[in-house]
Amino acid sequence: MTLRQLHYATTLAETGHFGRAAERCHVSQPALSQQIRQIEELCGAALFDRLGKSVRLTPFGHEFVSRARPILEQTDALEAMIAGRRGEPDRPLRFGLIPTVAPYLLPEIFPVLERDLPTLTFAVSEARTDALLEALVDGSLDLALIATEPEPGGPRLTLAPLFADEFVLATDASAPVSEPVPLATLDRTRMLLLDEGHCFREQALAACAIDPEASRRTFAATSLSTIVEFVANGQGVTLLPEIAIRKEATDSRIQIHRLAAPGARRMLYLVWREATPFAPLFEQVAATIRPLRAAAPAPGRVAAE
After folding, report:
1. For residue 158, what is the domain's CATH number?
2. Is there a smaller number of Cβ atoms within 10 Å at the N or the C end of the chain?
């Protein structure tokens, strides 16, 4: 039995889905399935109950995974100790970002990281905040870019502030809006939001003082791009993070408005495990990202490209 097989088994246990586990392990789904079958043949018992598209640990699988996890943790710690003597890992840095940041900052971040830190390579993934923090804790991620501070009393993580990301109001181009827009004057019944689990949804609810219970009866989308299309068709309004304007507000049917003071914003952070031997390197990554705050276009209608 190999460490790679143990990693595949624990990842499948965490995701409960062969496709998502294969994606996280950077292998094809058939390859991961084959390795799981080999473990089960070696053990003479099933680790997982197959439930259509999902899987669930068997009683034997629970015991197997509980014993495999500390082995992998100790192996990671040993590899990190060895690599830490060189100051950087000998594998790609596993870097996770939330969906309301990844498509807007990645084009800005990576050319500069490649220029300033040319010996590094990255394996990039996208997930919601809770999944990124879990991956940091279990060692499947090295660092993450998030927009909320972790709850106090949780795992010991280092939080490096990057920059504040201001919110703007997006309406259809024909909406009669006077700027700057006080948040208190927004029609909450027309506010379009991301679905539950996105930290940006919670931040928008807080900024607009919308009752979370009432918000569950409103339209909720899986991406900002979907919301913006509804806004362009005159079916509501939304808040956007400023870093998203250049990508999401290129349609002439969209109009962007500044908010009246104090406005609303979120803080972006780079976060990693406190115990990592690569903390100085991750500080360099944070220092490289901080000046890259994407310049947003001026408020008002944005011409279509």
Report:
1. 3.40.190.290
2. C
pLDDT at 295: 44
Domain boundary residue among 36, 51, 84?
84
User: Both 72 and 217 in a single domain?
Assistant: no
- From 84, 116, 137, give the residue that closes a domain: 84
The whole model's pTM is what?
A: 0.70
Task: For 90-141, write each residue's pLDDT tens digit.
Answer: 788 999 999 999 999 999 898 999 999 898 899 999 988 988 988 888 778 8
Question: Cβ(285)–Cβ(110) under 8 Å?
Answer: no
Count of domains forming the chain: 2
Residues 292 and 164 in one domain: yes
Task: Write down the pLDDT at residue 219.
Answer: 65
What's residue 298's pLDDT? 46
